[in-house]
Write a structure and sequence with these properties.
single chain; alpha/beta; nine-stranded mixed β-sheet; about 325 residues
Length: about 325
């Protein structure tokens, strides 16, 4: 199997950590770099969290770059309620690597450089707000054409929100960036929406088996995900199906699709954009089912996946 070259852009919370570990465990994948963005927690924490994950996986040779600390319009959301204030469940780690291990090159410059060095070969997996990626396009309008694929965790296809009534967190955290990316990128775009992730929620029994494999990686995952597990189960027992019926690792679904083309079994294909003006719909992904936007580059929106393959990738990640 030909090696897949990936560039990861993320806001390292618990499910980003899960996604990184899936990619690190996949035999046919080379991660060329990890770029950090604001989102689940502040940018300094995101950088530290990525370093922690790489350390536990003994892959500290992978370069990590610091990117945007705020959205294009300076706003900031965070998901501390779910991920913990530090983004990884607020579990103290006295041996965590320090920020001196972050590359001096800015994430946006690194992204453009890596895509240029490996033109047509790199798949960019974007599992946080899209600020860095929009900035890369603004700095180099040829950037999108240098990518092989763009995989996005974000947006929605049935106007179901998770931070506002109608918008998903990553798009709500920087609607302008999402708008720029969805309207200016010419490479194939694959999107794992919030509803797609909810629809494939994993049973809590699987989660228990997954984190109790007894390895160092599994113990790390058990520690960092205890906070979000408690939060999600409390919501579910209150009848708030905000988090769906089970364990939802949005970023893992996106990463699985990027690693193995056969994971996603069904797509719908439409032009997509993002609502910027609406009083209740700002940040909502628009799915142009009528083709009124007349878009050349229509996105592949994931609708069904082979859940057993996702589970296998996740189990391997913590072995």
């Amino acid at each position: 199997m030909a090696e897949k070259l990936l560039l990861l852009d993320l806001d390292c919370g618990v499910d980003d950590a899960q996604a990184i570990m899936i990619a690190l465990a996949a035999p046919n994948v080379q991660i060329l770099g990890i770029t950090c963005t604001h989102g689940n927690t502040k940018i300094e924490n995101v950088c530290k969290n990525v370093l922690r994950v790489l350390k536990v996986c003994q892959r500290t040779e992978i370069p990590v770059f610091r990117g945007a600390g705020k959205s294009l319009l300076e706003g900031q959301l965070n998901a501390g309620q779910y991920h913990g204030k530090d983004g990884l469940g607020d579990v103290p780690d006295p041996n965590a690597p320090g920020l001196e291990h972050i590359q001096t090159e800015n994430a946006v410059n690194a992204m453009i450089r890596i895509a240029t060095e490996h033109a047509g070969q790199v798949s960019l997996v974007a599992i946080g707000p899209l600020t860095n990626i929009a900035l890369a396009f603004k700095m180099d309008p040829t950037f999108p054409s240098k990518l092989k694929h763009l995989y996005i965790m974000g947006g929605n296809m049935e106007s179901r929100g998770n931070v506002t009534m109608c918008s998903e967190f990553n798009f709500a955290a920087d609607p302008e960036a999402a708008y720029i990316v969805l309207n200016h990128f010419a490479c194939p775009i694959y999107i794992a929406t919030w509803e797609y992730c909810l629809r494939h929620a994993l049973p809590w029994e699987f989660f228990k088996e997954w984190i109790n494999q007894g390895t160092e990686k599994a113990c790390f995952m058990k520690n960092i995900s205890a906070h979000s597990e408690k939060f999600a189960k409390a919501k579910q027992s209150n009848g708030e199906l905000y988090f769906g019926p089970g364990f939802v690792s949005c970023d893992s679904f996106t990463m699985a699709a990027a690693i193995d083309d056969s994971v996603v079994t069904e797509y719908i294909r439409y032009g997509v954009s993002v609502e910027l003006q609406g009083s209740v719909t700002r940040g909502m992904m628009i799915v142009d089912t009528l083709n009124l936007l007349q878009k050349q580059n229509q996105a592949f929106i994931m609708t069904k996946c082979d859940i057993e393959k996702v589970k296998q990738l996740m189990m391997s990640a913590l072995k």
